[in-house]
Amino acid sequence: MRYFFNLILSLTLCLCCFAYTTSHAQNFPVYNSFYINPFLYNPAEALTEYTQIFALHRQQWMNIEGAPTVSALTINTLLNESRAGIGAKFSSYKRGLLNTTDFTLSYAYGVPMGQKNWLFLGLSGGAITNSIDLTKVSDPNDPAIANYLANNIQPAAGFGALYRSGSGLNVGFSFPQLFPNVYNSDASFSNTTVSPADNVFVTIYYKRKVESKIVSRKKGGLKRKVKTQEAIAPLEMYFNYKYSKYGNSQFELLGKLNLTQNFWLGGSYRLPYGFTGNLGINTQRFILGYSYEPNNQPQDGFSQGSHEVILGLKLGSIKKFKRAAPVLRSTLTKTPNEKHTARFQDTGDDPNKLNAEQGTAKKKYYVVIRVFNDFTQADNYKKKLITEKFNAEIFYNPQDKKYYVHVLETLKASEANEEIRNLKSYTKLKEARLLVVTSDK
Length: 441
Known about the structure:
Oligomer: single chain
Shape: elongated
Radius of gyration: 29 Å
CATH topology of the largest domain: Porin
Structural class: mainly beta
Strand content: 35-45%
Order of helices and strands: HEEEEEEEEEEEEEEEEEEEHEEHE
Largest sheet: 14 strands, antiparallel, barrel
Distance between the termini: 37 Å
Number of strands: 22
């Protein structure tokens, strides 16, 4: 977490000077709700647990004639039990006399980087058209707008990448416009120029999921074991930098506080504009978010503020990302050499032997599959696991006089816990659990 904030601070100092030199013109839409629906900027974000539909409307600089207005509709989802995701986006962007409408389809693919990290790549393609509202033009015959009358259609495409860490840290970038906008062409699909760096969106954010766990809860005077639901950690942090060669580069720092799992408050500061306030409601199926920019942006008395509303719907059940089955440490030896275990032989260290000298005690971690009171039963089960290519052994515990059949013995708790997760996820050994033994050796 400290590394994340240090990274944010460093990037902030590096970009402040450049951001202050930019103008207030707008070429690519600004979305305050990017933290709710990052797919708006990055096609790599199409891989989501649920099928998601979002509708957004943004009215900027109220009471100013010709101020930007954005409406967008998106849908995206992970294809269940795969590594691919698909999405679609339709948007209408009005500012002054000019109206830009675009429609794109997206495809994203995820590459597992270990058991907890992912690299997502996304590509979008479609069409875009620019037109002029002739009802607001005093002289439609003006040569300056003659080429707009064709309402030509041009290709639209975008590319994005996202690295997602199991710790909650996400780093991504996107080129939302691989083809530059053409405003004065009299023929459709005549733009073949590729200029991906005209607009660049960079994002770093921290959003950690808290996994479900078993806790004790009092109900009716009795303690009961209950399983909590997966949830998002209370604090989320976002850093964004939007570069444009047209002079509207921006940098933004946003914080989101989840007061409960159903309600949040947030705020951001965007250079060179200022502050934005956010709030929202999140239920099992619906998401509703609202953001407000004060009327002092971009300067005092300029407008009556800016408003943005986003409504989301989650459909279906949770989708699962397909991973390659990991190499199990408990099956590394394909044909283990079976050795006889004495009925009361301790194959590990006696857990009753506590070290008298601090600092020299060692811990061993056993991935235990089953526990038996009878040696013969334990030995037969061990032989069964060996035939299934597991490195099975027996540990006799003199404290409870039981025989523990285990498939992994290690000095690292992380290895044992990882093996337990893998056995439960990819094998029939769902009953795998951890046994910790402390010795003075």
